[in-house]
Amino acid sequence: MTDAYDPAGDGAQMSFARDMSYADYLSLDPILGAQNRLSDAHDEMLFIIQHQTSELWMRLALHELSSARIALIADDFQPAFKMLTRVSRIFDQLNNAWDVLRTMTPSEYTAFRDKLGASSGFQSHQYRLIEFILGNRNRAMLKVHEHRPELHHMLEQELRTRSLYHVVLDKLAARLDTRFDPKIYRMDQPHQHDNAVMAAWTTIYQSPRDHWTLYELAEKLVDLEDYFRRWRFNHVTTVERIIGFKRGTGGTSGVKYLRKMLEVELFPELWNMRGRL
Predict the structure, then answer these.
(1) E strand or H helix at 85
(2) What is the biggest distance separating any 2 CA atoms in the chain, rounded to whole angstroms?
(3) Which of 84, 128, 139, 140 is least buried, going by the fewest C-beta atoms within 10 A?
């Protein structure tokens, strides 16, 4: 009979009375102690963990997007490409999470839905920050966060900062020695399609070898929005599958509101330009 494996025999440290452990480094006690169910419903744990992990992934997405913007401003393109690719993969992870939540049936959700009160993913300040950084800006959304001055201030500051796409358009204009209409740099409104911007991107795509850096940057943005759109679509279908066309807990029209969000384009010129090539 083979003796049980003892990791200490291979030199593994087994005592952490004086040294930092895995749980210490990751602050696992507060993280794993944060799943506070308000009901006895079995599936409430799934619902809580689904949304908590989504917020953690969004925390990383914000870290990467903010750093990518700084890198692009400094013409440090390669690290920015890596960061944007990572954000796309983050949204792929977020997409996969909907598959787990969809294992919950309407009956199971109803067992604890009333415990949510008026709380809703619509109120996620991190999701709103991601949208603001990418260019889908709407000052009206700040009101949801007035009860949290520090979060309201954070969002307000982002509205005073050029979006990631604004920075990209600066690079596009500089590379082609042109200037875009200042109106495309709206700070607190969603970015709108601009023909001059689309013409500039068309030039890049017609001669990719002459403009490879911007060509690659454009494709990184399209990848990101592609995954972002899939996440939104999966959100809609998951909500419809679980609550149908009921109003959301936060007061929105639920599926109808989410379907409207599917129409939002972050980088419209990069999509509309494709029909002209």
Answers:
(1) helix 77-101
(2) 79
(3) 140
Contacts of 72 (CB under 8 A, 6+ apart): 80, 164, 167, 168, 171, 217
Comparing C-alpha atoms, which of 56, 76, 55, 54 is closest to residue 67? Answer: 76
- Give the residue extent of every domain in the chain: 41-276
Task: Read off the tokens for 245.
Answer: 């066309």
Give the type of residue at 223: D
**Residue 236 host element (H or E):** helix 212-243
Contact between 98 and 240 (Cβ < 8 Å): no
What span, in angstroms and rounded, lies between the C-alpha atoms of 169 and 232? 25
pTM of the model: 0.92
Structure tokens at 226: 């592609």
Could you tell me if 43 and 111 are in contact, meaning their C-beta atoms sit under 8 angstroms apart?
yes
Topology annotation, domain 41-276: Methane Monooxygenase Hydroxylase; Chain G, domain 1 (1.20.58)
Read off the tokens for 251. Answer: 């007061």
Reported as a single tens digit per residue, the pLDDT across 177-197 is 999 999 999 999 999 999 999
